[in-house]
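Researcher: We plan to redesign the surface later, but first we want a full-length starting point. Tokens attached.
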């Protein structure tokens, strides 16, 4: 097992047990640890990370409670089999959807900043801000098809503001770093405000499909996002 590479958020260091959890999750996500693989023992982790046994024990105990690891008495701790849930909507990367149609995706970043918006802080279930905020317009063959207004938990993705989202979408970046354990969706047919309408090159009065989504990494709300789509240029589809 390699040494920890996850960096805590500036000014708000993550507890050591949480850093160990993130490291194990990253190892699983990268494929370095696969379902059924044995995880290094508590003794090995104590030496690896230079922390107390109770710290390692808490990290492993929480990962077991979250269904990430399984402990077999007298044998060891193993990576649990992946659990799949069927939902009406898949969390798909807009760039992958566009590429699957044989088209070119481009993105224009309107904002990438820290925010103290109280509604965003509440949506992410945090006590105080700031949180991270991005606004991005996604284009298919140069035509805007999605306005993304996203708030991100800085404790889960501390380097979010340092990314170039014209190269990699936020969705791809976050899923690459941490597997999503849970998501909730709401969908509305709604007229956009003037700001969104202008960036989506829509006519006055034209409706949008608005998707509201929150996702969880472990017990933390990782992101809260509003996705606006011109109804004339976009449709939502899914399977059950």
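Model: Full-length starting sequence:
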């Amino acid at each position: 097992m390699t040494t920890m590479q996850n960096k805590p958020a500036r000014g708000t260091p993550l507890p050591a047990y949480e850093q160990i959890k993130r490291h194990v999750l990253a190892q699983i996500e990268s494929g370095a640890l696969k379902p059924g693989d044995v995880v290094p023992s508590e003794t090995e982790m104590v030496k690896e990370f230079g922390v107390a046994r109770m710290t390692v024990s808490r990290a492993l105990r929480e990962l077991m409670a979250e269904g990430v690891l399984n402990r077999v008495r007298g044998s060891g701790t193993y990576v649990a089999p992946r659990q799949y849930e069927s939902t009406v909507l898949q969390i798909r990367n807009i760039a992958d959807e566009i590429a699957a149609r044989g088209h070119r995706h481009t993105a224009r970043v309107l904002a990438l900043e820290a925010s103290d918006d109280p509604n965003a802080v509440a949506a992410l279930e945090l006590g105080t801000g700031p949180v991270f905020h991005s606004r991005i317009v996604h284009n298919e063959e140069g035509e805007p098809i999605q306005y993304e207004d996203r708030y991100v938990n800085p404790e889960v993705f501390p380097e979010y503001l340092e990314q170039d989202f014209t190269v990699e979408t936020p969705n791809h970046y976050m899923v690459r770093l941490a597997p999503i354990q849970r998501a909730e969706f709401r969908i509305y047919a709604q007229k956009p405000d003037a700001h969104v309408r202008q960036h989506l090159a829509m006519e006055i009065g034209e409706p949008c499909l608005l998707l509201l989504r929150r996702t969880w990494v472990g017990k933390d709300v990782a992101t809260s996002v509003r996705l606006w789509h011109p109804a004339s240029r976009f449709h939502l589809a899914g399977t059950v």
